[in-house]
Design brief:
The complex is a heterodimer of chains A (about 425) and B (about 220). With about 425 residues, chain A is α+β, with helices and mostly antiparallel strands. Chain A folds into two domains: about 150 residues, Chloramphenicol Acetyltransferase (2-Layer Sandwich); about 240 residues, 2-Layer Sandwich (Chloramphenicol Acetyltransferase), CATH 3.30.559.30. Helices cover about 30% and strands about 20% of the residues of chain A. In chain A, the strands form three sheets. In chain A, strands 10-9-11-13-14-8-15 form a seven-stranded mixed beta sheet, with helices on both faces. The longest helix of chain A has 18 residues. Chain A is globular and about 60 Å long. Chain A starts with 9 loop residues before the first strand and ends in a 7-residue tail after the last strand. With about 220 residues, chain B is mainly alpha-helical. Chain B is built from eight helices and three strands; from the N terminus they run βββαααααααα. Chain B has a three-stranded antiparallel beta sheet, with no helix packed on it. Chain B starts with a strand and ends with a helix. The chains are: A alpha+beta (about 425), B mainly alpha (about 220). Chains A and B meet through strand 4, strand 8, helix 11 and strand 15 of A and strand 2, helix 5 and helix 8 of B. Strand 15 of chain A pairs parallel with strand 2 of chain B.
Chain lengths: ~425, ~220
């Protein structure tokens, strides 16, 4: 028996992570992808070396999921991590048997490197750090003169405990944990794409242009995009169809909030909460102005510290419930599955993830073209949207599990009608749908 | 660079239609580009699944034929359970034992436990002489104990993955003694040998690797 045991080499799942292993399957994969495009063709050998270096720096990603009696846990994974070439499958199920047990993938194609991450392990913020470090080490191995400038975690630093803490529990407040029940949301219907394939349509905008447009409307970019999405959903799916029963449900957009911006924490694991915009759209005369006003109000309410802590504590309280804790995992699994299928997923019409601005050191910028964020689209949330920006490139990526492109089409036509330049990228899923 | 004058968007692609509205794209600059996303490929795992399907078909039909024949010859003698159990064990051997990517200790553990069941089944449906529980079960447990210990001893790095199965099998080794106490088993020496070896292994771990047991329990039982 050897001496692999370092100070800590197994981790409990954090509060938000606990739900995902139970509710993920080939339809709802709960994986997301962040892609970075570089200026030169990727050299797989150096990329593999870079990944091996990075895994030493990030012990919390060098894990596999194992079952305990009461909860799952992440255990140290001694098997090698292998990078792979990109396939047509986007944000597919993270099958532990295919991937040496690792819960994330590093894939490459032409000039792109992508990290596909199972949501249990980390959120967008964590992947952002991982991707930065990976690209930094890769560029170093390629012989480029790059410096970390305190923006990138490099192999020379030692991992800190704060990087893998469960920050949700840290800010848990017992007194502020009231449960607010929610109703089901409107679902965007359409024809399923065969074989659980995902359709991707990204639009590349100019950051300054979209920023200017949002400011003209007195909103942040996320608020503006959420309003546009609400408006487009209304225009394409609901208007003049008020009498249909399913259209009585509110349109709700789920917008993850990176809590690192609101509470001090260095964690690389899940530390996100959400804001929801909600509107009943069963009237024939809703205007864009009306939607904007409502969205702005709901953002303002949702982002308050009290409200964020309440939502956090609600989840943590659930986990701390003594009856749930002493239930064996296989029963818990059952409960979580049923609960999530009945409620969790059906509370949102779509999700709009703004991963935010990627800041790279000056010395790395010449080698980077742009970034793409992609989230999985499942059976209930048939269209999802992820946003990421780097310098002047502002990329909005729609992923969909249905063939119809109405929402994407009208969304980008709306933006071009405001005078924005849009460049489209797509995986042309029509070819095999 | 191509352009869609309906959607007013530009796109770099080799395809001829707009991904948004599916209308023809207007070519602004003629160029050959590398697509951002790869082409669709059909699954190449067909061959393996065809062999599997044939085997599955044969197994299911044999089981049905065996059951029917057994029914015709009368249910007093359940001889068909022996071949049916063997067919099921064969599948387990294939899926868990050979083609699984689970760790080896887990595979040995599962195969041992199921093999004990199969042996018990054969014993019961061929005269109930009691050899399965008297001799086979303790000796299988003993060899499983030794096998996992041996694997841990030679493949040092992965011992963390195996230790829980070793602890489980040590725990299971108490079963033959319990059967003796209840009077089911009468032959003493196999059961006692098995328990002795199990206790020896357990003490060895406790004295020489106390942290591994403590960690394993912490991991598996944190609430």
């Amino acid at each position: 028996m050897s001496n692999v045991a370092k100070n800590q080499d197994w981790f409990k799942l954090d509060n938000s992570a606990k739900i995902f292993p139970s509710v993920s399957n080939y339809k709802e994969t709960n994986t997301f992808r962040v892609t970075i495009s570089l200026t030169e063709k990727i050299n797989p050998e150096n990329l593999q070396k870079a990944v091996d270096i990075i895994l030493e720096r990030y012990p919390m990603f060098r894990v596999k999921l194992k079952k305990g009696l009461f909860w799952n846990y992440f255990d140290y994974n001694s098997k090698p991590f292998l990078i792979r070439e990109m396939t047509y499958r986007i944000c597919g199920e993270m099958n532990p048997k295919e991937n040496n047990g690792y819960l994330f993938k590093v894939i490459y194609r032409n000039k792109d490197v992508a990290i596909e991450m199972f949501h249990s392990l980390a959120d967008g913020g964590g992947v952002m750090m991982l991707l930065k470090s990976l690209v930094y080490e890769y560029l170093l191995l390629e012989g480029k003169n790059v410096k970390p400038d305190n923006l990138v975690l490099t192999k020379n630093e030692k991992p800190e405990y704060e990087e893998y803490e469960d920050a949700n529990v840290k800010y848990y407040n017992k007194k502020n944990r009231k449960h607010v029940s929610e109703e089901r949301a409107y679902r965007i219907k359409g024809t399923q794409i065969v074989d659980n394939n995902t359709g991707i349509i990204s639009g590349i905008l100019k950051t300054s242009e979209i920023l200017k447009l949002s400011r003209e409307n007195n909103m942040t970019i996320t608020e503006y995009l959420a309003s546009v999405l609400m408006y487009i959903i209304y225009k394409t799916q609901l208007q003049y169809r008020e009498s249909i029963k399913s259209n009585q449900k509110p349109v709700k957009i789920f917008i993850p909030v990176n809590l690192r911006k609101h509470f001090p924490s260095k964690t690389l694991r899940n530390f996100t909460n959400f804001i929801k915009t909600k509107m009943y759209m069963n009237k024939p005369d809703i205007t864009f102005e009306e939607i904007k006003k409502l969205v702005k109000k709901q953002f303002k309410q949702g982002i308050q510290k009290d409200e964020l802590i309440r939502k956090m504590s609600e989840n943590v309280a659930f986990e701390k419930n003594i009856f749930l804790r002493i239930t064996p995992y296989f029963l818990k699994n059952f409960v979580l599955k049923i609960g999530y299928n009945m409620l969790g997923i059906k509370l949102n019409t779509m999700s709009l993830t703004n991963i935010g601005k990627f800041a790279f050191p000056e010395s790395m910028k010449p080698y980077i073209v742009d970034l793409t964020a992609t989230i999985n689209a499942g059976r209930f949330n048939t269209v999802n949207c992820a946003v990421v920006s780097y310098e002047e490139k502002f990329k909005i990526t729609f992923s969909r599990s249905i063939i119809e492109t109405t929402i994407e089409k009208e969304f980008f036509r709306f933006l071009t009608s405001k005078g924005l330049e849009v460049e489209i990228e797509s995986n042309f899923v029509e070819e095999y749908a | 660079m191509k352009y869609c004058d309906k959607c007013k968007i530009s796109i770099k692609t080799n395809h001829d239609y707009c991904p948004l509205c599916h209308q023809t794209l207007e070519i602004k600059v003629k160029e050959e580009v590398v697509e951002k996303y790869p082409q669709y490929e059909t699954n190449i795992r067909e061959l393996k699944s065809i062999t599997k399907r044939i085997m599955l078909f044969l197994s299911v039909t044999s089981i049905i034929i065996l059951l029917i024949t057994n029914a015709v010859t009368g249910f007093e003698n359940l001889w068909s359970l022996i071949p049916i159990g063997s067919i099921i064990y064969f599948w387990l051997l294939m899926t868990v034992g050979i083609f699984s990517r689970h760790n080896i200790a887990f595979r040995i553990f599962i195969l041992t436990i199921t093999l004990i069941f199969l042996m018990y089944l054969i014993d019961e449906s061929s005269g109930s002489e009691g050899w399965a529980l008297d001799y086979v079960a303790p000796i299988l447990l003993l060899s499983c104990n030794l096998a996992i210990s041996f694997i841990i001893a030679i493949r040092k790095i992965n011992y963390r993955d195996y230790i829980s199965y070793l602890l489980l099998i040590v725990f299971f080794s108490i079963a033959p003694i319990i059967l003796i106490l209840f009077g089911v088993v009468e032959v003493l020496w196999p059961a006692i040998t098995t328990l002795g070896v199990a206790v020896f292994i357990l003490l060895f771990i406790i004295f020489f690797f106390p942290k591994s047991i403590k960690d394993e329990i912490k991991k598996r039982f944190h609430a």
